[in-house]
Amino acid sequence: MRIFMTGASGWIGSAVAPELLAAGHEVSGIARSDASVAALESAGVTPLRGSLDDLDVLRAGAEASDAVIHLGFKHDFNDMAASGRTERAALEVFGDVLAGSGRKFMFASGLAGAAPGTLLTEEYTSPYVGPESPRGGSENLALSFAERGIAPVSLRFSPTVHGNGDHGFAAELVRIARERGVSAYIGDGSNRWAAVHRFDTARMIALALQKAPAGTITHAVGEEGIPTREIAEAIGQGLDLPVISVAPEDAAAHFGWIATFFGMDVTASSKITRELLGWTPTEQGLLADIADYYVKAPAAV
Ligand SMILES: NC(=O)c1ccc[n+]([C@@H]2O[C@H](COP(=O)([O-])OP(=O)(O)OC[C@H]3O[C@@H](n4cnc5c(N)ncnc54)[C@H](OP(=O)(O)O)[C@@H]3O)[C@@H](O)[C@H]2O)c1
Hints:
three-stranded mixed sheet; 2 domains; alpha/beta; UDP-galactose 4-epimerase, domain 1; Rossmann fold; 14 strands; binds NADP nicotinamide-adenine-dinucleotide phosphate; globular
């Protein structure tokens, strides 16, 4: 198949593309900078120069493909509304191009939105509807594409897709611990994060491309819920720093933009995904990755 990707140069996408190429697919992807063009070329992905705002490039890429995997996202945590608008505009283009084709549209999504303490399953419907919702209400918009003769597949990622070289949420917690000289959790640290390894995620996406029917919601979840206190303890132990509690009202001052996410209770099952796809996560868990990689990575400058 000819697969068109956004986000092929990103943390998850750069693990997905090799899986697809190894399975014999042709892969193209947007690249907004010389560095991303070079990264895609060296991975064997054909670059299409453009950004997520270049809707003509998205259109051309999707038109020339048999399936689209949309992982690109503007991670501007200071203006998530703008990121959501970009996301929605991109999805509208993909919907128009793919309508009536029966082609697969696989897209990144998340596990947020449920009440704390809820173990999210693939049967859970996101409450986010409409352009002003988080991520532009993109999951519900994309799932509605099934009514337009498209085969949408939601890829709900754990809040941390971890592994060696990560620059995402877990790496940010390590950076903050180094900067502050303490490793902190919020309140009693009993709120949990689901987690999944990047390579397990890539294998799940490749399987979903093969096997997931239209309208499937997949959960990239390797571990259902790790207490954030244990995450802070693993970081503190690895960096030889004290582990402390930060009161919820002080969390924003201590953690900055990631406070909101680190204070969430996000637990999820992937039972349905595992059964449907025959997917079994095999990589090591988050706490082992923190000990082996995150705390040993050079401090960001
Ligand atoms: N990693 C996680 O733990 C996690 C958890 C939950 C959900 N997700 C979601 O999964 C998806 C992939 O995440 P990721 O961790 O792989 O993200 P990432 O490493 O930040 O990569 C983002 C990708 O989007 C591209 N991108 C960003 N802004 C762009 C723009 N304006 N125009 C074109 N491309 C642009 C980046 O291109 P450049 O290479 O040029 O920067 C990169 O390829 C995202 O939707 C993310 O929100 C990730």
